[in-house]
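I have a small job for you when you get a moment. Would you make up a two-line entry for one protein for me to read? No commentary is needed, just the two lines. Write everything out right here, beneath this request.
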Amino acid sequence: MRIAKDWQDYCLIDTSKGERLERWGNVTLIRPDPQIIWECSDPASEWNNANARYIRSSSGGGHWEYSRSLPENWNIRYKNLTFMVKPTGFKHTGLFPEQAVNWDYCAELIEQAGRPAKILNLFAYTGGATLACAAAGASVCHLDAVKGMVEWGKQNAALSGLSDKPIRWIVDDVMKFLGREIKRGNKYDGIVLDPPSYGRGTNGEMWKLEDRIYELMMRCTQVLSDDPLFIVLNSYTTGLSPSVMSYLLQMTVGRQRKAEISAEEIGLPVKQTGLAIPCGNTAIVNFIN
C-alpha cells in the first residue's frame, strides 16, 4: 500500500465501529466509512470533542450534527498547496487526503522530465492533482462535469498562488470532451483520472464505471503524446480491484505503448493504532522510451 504520510494539517486520528475520526486543520470531524468493521480497543479521547458528526439516513444521504461551532469553510495546507475544505451534504469535505501520494508522484515525474509537460486531469473534482502538476511546471487541462467543483478548484488555485499558471478550467462531459480532443488532434503528456462509480454528465448523461471504463481508457490512449510521462487511474469502486485495473490498462494502453503498469491500494496512517487504512486503488502507467 502507498501511504499518504506527509500531511501536517490533516490527520486520521482513529477508526472504530464504521467511522473515521479526522482532524482537518483545527476542526475535528467524524465521518462514516463502511469498511471500518472493527472496534478500537483503546479509542482516542478526541472522539468526545469532535466539532461535527455525519449521520447517515436509512433512506440514503444523511446530515451533519454539530457539537461545537465551526466555520462554514476553512483552509488546510499540503506542502506548497492550500485547499479550502467544508462539510458537504454527502459527507465529503472537498478533498481526498490519500490522493496526496499521487499528487507527489505526478509532480516528481513532471519535474524530472525537464521539459514542458501538458497534463489532462479528468473528473478533476476540486483540483488536487491539477494544482500539484501546475506547481511542478506543467500546463493543465482541468475537467469536471460539475460547475461548482470547477469553481472550487479555481478557489484552491488562488489560495495556492497558482491563478497565473496555465490551467484550463472546463465544465464538460468527459467522454464527449475526449471525442472532440481526438478529432482536434490534441495530445497530452500525462493523464490523471478519478472517475466516480456512478454519476451524470453535464446534460444528465448516465455514467456507470464498469460499463464505460474500457471505452474511456481507449479514448485516453488516443490523446497521448508521442513521449508521454504517465497515466494515473484512481478508483473507489469495490469491484475494481488493483489486479483488474492493471489488466484493464494492459489491454488498452499496454497494447499500443511500451509501458510498465502497476496497481495497488493507497491509504492513510491511523494515529491511534499506528496502522494504515486503505482508501481506494490507483493504477499507474509508466512509459518506456
About this structure: The chain is about 25% helix and 35% strand.
